[in-house]
Design a protein that fits this description.
Distance between the termini of chain A: 30 Å
Helix content of chain A: 55-70%
Number of strands of chain A: 3
Largest sheet of chain A: 3 strands, antiparallel
Oligomer: homodimer
Strand order of the largest sheet of chain A: 1-3-2
Chain lengths: 151, 151
DNA sequence: AAATAATAAATGTATTGACATATAATGTAA
DNA sequence: TTACATTATATGTCAATACATTTATTATTT
């Protein structure tokens, strides 16, 4: 009885429609709560996302194109996002030796340190998710995979 | 095995983390596909959302504040959103008789006609959701409610 | 090798959104 | 009734985003 009260709507076309609205609503709820936490560290969600991608590959460099492919929301102008991180000394950008079109992006020590701090915040954020058991979390994830038709 | 390949990430901190990323990724996938369809009719998702809220109450007027409360992503500047719809003659805006601070917003015939067309598009969009059975859709929706702690 | 296509990234521009603040009307308390 | 708080909406400003285009480099074709 919840999404109904949250968006003050009692009728849905059908189960799938209710599910779709619920997905959008729940995700908006979830990512807003993350944005609030990140703002205290002067980061946006996409910036945080990029930093974690870079840490995942560290110390290997990552090209802008790779970043785009790995991002949650495939975005067009990732290079300006990298600019922002560069301005904060959280990443460094060097010309890729094999391909002079491309650019190698690497997270800096400062970036790693910031992410280290944010891990605690992230733990805190993830606590919210524990209304679901581990089993339920897996179940939800599997349903999402199936929804996208990739099972 | 899917979110892993879609965002090229094989390791997650834990089941809940994987679920959270999957939620964000799947919802982004879902709403992007809707945006693409809407753009052909020169509407954004929030605008479409507002129009449907107005249709839901039609012919009763809806105040801007009500719109905000009913929206998926609670947004600060709903009045400029109404402006946009007004400019396209999809809604009309009149001063609320009982409360001169408030504004009554009503969907126009043109707005209703547009939504009528878009219903077909929406059906089409919802077809995507049928990788899940009705039962699975309900299951997913219930898990989302539970995730938000509102069960 | 020259011409053409394809790829990686950056940039221009207009729109959208976030956030704080302003304006106006109403409600409430002294 | 005046002062003060609250509510409803609008606006100013700046950052973020979308989308198209541009530049530079590499790959492919003839």
């Amino acid at each position: 009885m919840s999404i109904e009260t949250d968006i003050k709507q009692t009728k849905f076309r059908n189960a799938h429609h209710r599910m779709a609205l619920n997905l959008i609503y729940t995700t908006s709820w979830l990512s807003n709560s993350q944005s609030v936490l990140l703002k205290a560290h002067d980061l946006t969600s996409p910036q945080y996302n990029v930093l974690r991608i870079l840490r995942g590959q560290h110390p290997k460099p990552v090209q802008v194109n790779d970043i785009i492919e790995r991002m949650m929301d495939k975005m067009s102008n990732a290079s300006r996002l990298v600019d922002k991180l560069l301005a904060k000394d959280l990443v460094k950008r060097t010309e890729c030796p094999h391909d002079r079109r491309a650019v190698d992006v690497i997270i800096t020590e400062k970036g790693l340190a910031l992410l280290g701090e944010l891990d605690k915040m992230q733990d805190c954020w993830e606590e919210q998710l524990h209304h679901l058991s581990e089993q339920e979390a897996n179940q939800l994830s599997n349903l999402l995979d199936k929804l996208r038709g990739s099972v």
